[in-house]
Amino acid sequence: MSNKGKKFRFSRDTFVELLLALKQAEYRFLSFEDVQGAGVQLGGKSCVLRHDVDVSMDFALDMAQLENELGVRATYFVMLRSPLYNLMSRHASERLAQLVSLGHHIGLHFDAGFVLDSEKDLERELVFELGVLSDLVGDSIRAFSFHQPSDKAIRMRVALPGVINTYNPDQLQEYRYISDSNRVWREVDPFDLIASGMKHLHILLHPVWWMCSSENVYDCWDQAINRNFESTQIQLLSTERAFGPARKLVLTRLS
Questions:
Q1: Residue 91 reports pLDDT greater than 70
Q2: What is the arithmetic mean of pLDDT over 140-158?
Q3: For the chain, what is the domain count?
């Protein structure tokens, strides 16, 4: 599938088409831990499929289930400082466990801006958050990605022993990186890269852009926030008597 001459459509169907295109082109799906080991030296084509979970653990699980049905494993980078979901809540921790049970890998999506703006030590905070996430997952976390990284954070080329920094070119030299940031492919879309025969791919896909049912990015944000809000209400109704009788609060976007 080539999208030259027409608008690229972000959807569940296109996501499945992309996975099938990668499989048909005989790409092996590797984790960042594989790359850190002997992944590139094993020969053949490979793809490191990465998902930064900025907005919704529900959308992440939707994507993970589609991948699982096709025998694809990816790495989901989750946040400890997200304003939209709490990994320690009942709902999000259940979703995290489901991602792992589907065979996917977990990485840390780290808000470097919070640390740099507060003049905290970035490496120390990274080690702290990696440890917390390791405890939540019950396994070592071998990779991290920066959330909306500044040039300063990228230039630091943070290198922790045994951990891949997805923005450190020294650690992913063999891999061609592309991202769907805000539903825009900056240079080339993944279908054209696959068709070109590019040997090693590092593809970043955000679940919200593909699992959302609208072509409008603002609607996608609204859908994600509403799903998060609904899960919060469910827990409140089941555990907090002070919340009162069963009812449904509705979020409304101001025009």
A1: yes
A2: 87
A3: 1
